[in-house]
Specification:
By secondary structure, this protein is an alpha/beta fold. The protein has helices spanning 3-12, 35-39, 42-53, 73-83, 122-133, 176-180, and strands spanning 16-22, 28-33, 64-68, 87-93, 96-99, 110-118, 137-146, 159-164, 169-170. The protein has a single domain (3-180), classed as Rossmann fold. Helix content is 28%, strand content 29%. The strands form 2 sheets. Strands 5-4-3-6-7-8 form a 6-stranded mixed sheet, with helices on both faces. It has a 3-stranded antiparallel sheet with strand order 1-2-9. The structure holds zinc ion.
């Protein structure tokens, strides 16, 4: 699939939202990609996962797929299913990224980290930090969408995405949409936004 086909998939699913959004990074944006609306279609999830797998440097070198919850769960699981690898996830408890539910990572385990949408890359970095605490070795990061492709150096391992989409974001205390005062900022995914 090329980038245009993937974007068309998002548009057809009503997953390119316009409004006033608070991203997980805390920054504000007038556009939001609701990947869950694309990934709810299993056929789409399989196609996007296949696209990501085509960017894996060496599939034989991957022992396990790990995603940061919640955004990475569906695409991470689908990538792992197609690669026939185990899949686990990290999640936040009281704001801190952790490995829970009895999951563990063997010493030296080579990890593919998979996320749906990346902006600052904060969740992925926290996920990789947890993997390393357990002695795991993150070898590559894959994401469906990069929302800030101009930001380099977010990860210290190779990184690839299915599509790049430049979306302007603003600090919460310096947001022109807030200043206009017409549209309250909402957190997509929390409720109602999608
Ligand atoms: Zn705002």
């Amino acid at each position: 699939m090329n980038e245009q086909e993937i974007l068309a998939m998002y548009e057809d699913a009503g997953a390119l939202l316009n409004g006033h959004f608070i991203l997980s990074s805390g920054r504000h944006s007038a556009r939001y990609l609701q990947s869950a609306l694309v990934l709810m279609n299993i056929d789409h999830a399989t196609k996007l996962a296949g696209e990501l797998i085509s960017k894996v440097h060496d599939a034989d070198q991957i022992d396990m797929v790990v995603s940061p919850a919640i955004g990475g769960l569906v695409i991470g699981q689908e990538v792992a299913r197609l690669m026939k690898k185990p899949f686990i996830f990290t999640e936040r408890k009281e704001g801190e990224m952790q490995l829970r539910r009895g999951f563990s990572i063997a010493e030296g385990c080579r990890i593919l980290v998979v996320e749906d949408v990346i902006t600052t890359g904060g969740s992925v970095c926290e996920c990789m930090a947890v993997v390393r605490e357990y002695g795991g070795n993150p070898v590559q990061v894959l994401a469906v969408v990069d929302r800030a492709p101009d930001e380099q150096g977010r990860f210290d391992v190779p990184y690839a995405t299915a599509i790049e989409l430049n979306v302007e974001t603003h600090a919460g205390d310096d947001c022109p949409i807030c200043r206009a005062g017409l549209l309250p900022a909402i957190k997509p995914g929390s409720r109602g936004a999608a």
